[in-house]
Amino acid sequence: DVREPDEWELGRAPQASHLPLSTLQPAQLPTGRPIIAMCRTGNRSGKAAAQLAAAGHDATNIVGGMQAWHAAGFPVVVDGGAPGVVK
User: Fold this and answer.
1) Confidence at residue 33, expressed as pLDDT on a 0 to 100 scale
2) Where are the alpha helices (DSSP H) in 1-87?
3) Which terminus of the chain is more exposed, N or C, with fewer CB under 10 A?
């Protein structure tokens, strides 16, 4: 999840890791496994996926981001697993 901390704290996909686009450093991430990038709408995560791919990672953007994730009925959670929101 490449959203900013305030967005992340409201709700995210279960098991997501938080790596804001503003601080993303693709060269510091381990290789050898796919990375799925997500943001609110898919714009920032598209940029992140491009940066990751350019650094040699197997990266995919979730088109539509958390808004599409939530609209499709997938869970959105906060710390502790309680339901979260997407704004």
Assistant:
1) 94
2) 5-10, 43-54, 65-71
3) C
- Average pLDDT over every residue of 51-75: 97
Collapsing DSSP to helix, strand or coil, 48 comes out as helix
Whole-number CA gyration radius for the chain? 12
Q: Is 9 a catalytic residue?
A: no
Write down the catalytic residue from 19, 39, 48, 66.
Answer: 39
Distance CA 37, CA 47 (A): 9
For strand 59-61 and strand 35-37, is the pairing parallel, antiparallel, or unpaired? parallel
- For residue 65, give both structure tokens: 């981001």
CA distance 3 to 86: 11
pLDDT digits (tens, 9 = 90+) for 2-25: 999 999 999 999 999 999 999 999
